[in-house]
């Protein structure tokens, strides 16, 4: 915990966030996901997962755990179901005692990278959700090769499992792009999706670059990108109720409904302000809408 706190305070000190005139970067809210290497020894993986649940019970800075490292590595393939069973066990043990969320890289596979005879691309996403209790899926690239892919997509829609789409990473690592990418399938199936960068140290990508790739490679339009940005906060692991009754339809809750003179993101009504005061998630969503309004007025 001390290292996490030092890291959090360290970057804020470096930016000068406690100075009289802090830079705008200090307004960016930061939370941490505990990364556990799925290629580690079984006892190490289990121990690190326990550590993540324990840390989240003690600090609001730690909000989630993720299993990272190559999904097609032999150790990852051999221990995948065991890792999901670990998460299932710990989920039951810590219910009510730890607020830790689970976000898992799953389905970052193609037949070309799998060992001969492996059927990992037929069940990894399903197990991540059903056994691993994943609320978000990183990549989800092989969803159409999963057993009963239509049923899986329907369940992801119903449960609100968001997919973190990493377009540059998928091109660089697995050479998947254009119509071969399942992004359009997710969107047609009404599964929530958001654009992500993956590991910037490897991909050297930025959010601006990922949005540009979404337009140029996937043919997305502004309103679709806007919904994805909203999804990223709707499915962020932040406390409080959502601003939206429907993200897809851009419908705020009744207390914060837009009027002819006051748009979402402008000055909130007293009723809406009271609601925002009680929800960190909703406050950030409201601020995002304000930024959308400012940007769109430039057009």
How is this structure best summarized?
With 299 residues, the chain is α/β, with parallel strands linked by helices. The chain is built from 12 helices and 8 strands.
Any overview of this molecule?
- By secondary structure, this protein is an alpha/beta fold.
- The chain folds into 2 domains: 31-237, Metal-dependent hydrolases (TIM Barrel), CATH 3.20.20; 245-296, no CATH class.
- It has helices at residues 2-15, 42-58, 74-94, 124-130, 149-159, 167-174, 183-188, 200-203, 207-218, 222-234, 270-277, 280-296; strands at 32-37, 62-68, 101-106, 136-139, 162-165, 193-195, 244-246, 251-252.
- Strand 2 (62-68), helix 3 and strand 3 (101-106) form a beta-alpha-beta unit.
- The protein starts with a helix and ends with a helix.
Distance between the termini: 46 Å
Quaternary assembly: single chain
Proportion of residues in helical segments:
40-55%
Please write the string of helix (H) and strand (E) elements. Answer: HEHEHEHEHEHHEHHHEEHH
Q: Low-confidence parts lasting 5 or more residues at pLDDT below 50?
A: none
Hey, roughly how much beta strand do the residues contain?
5-15%
Mean pLDDT: 95
* Number of domain units: 2
Which secondary-structure class do the elements indicate? alpha/beta
Number of helices: 12
Fourth CATH level, the homologous superfamily of the largest domain: Metal-dependent hydrolases
Sheet having the most strands: 6 strands, parallel
- Rg, Å, rounded: 20 Å
CATH topology category name of the largest domain:
TIM Barrel
Number of strands: 8
Order of strands side by side in the largest beta sheet? 1-2-3-4-5-6
Q: Quick one: overall form?
A: globular
The CATH level-2 architecture of the largest domain is identified as: Alpha-Beta Barrel
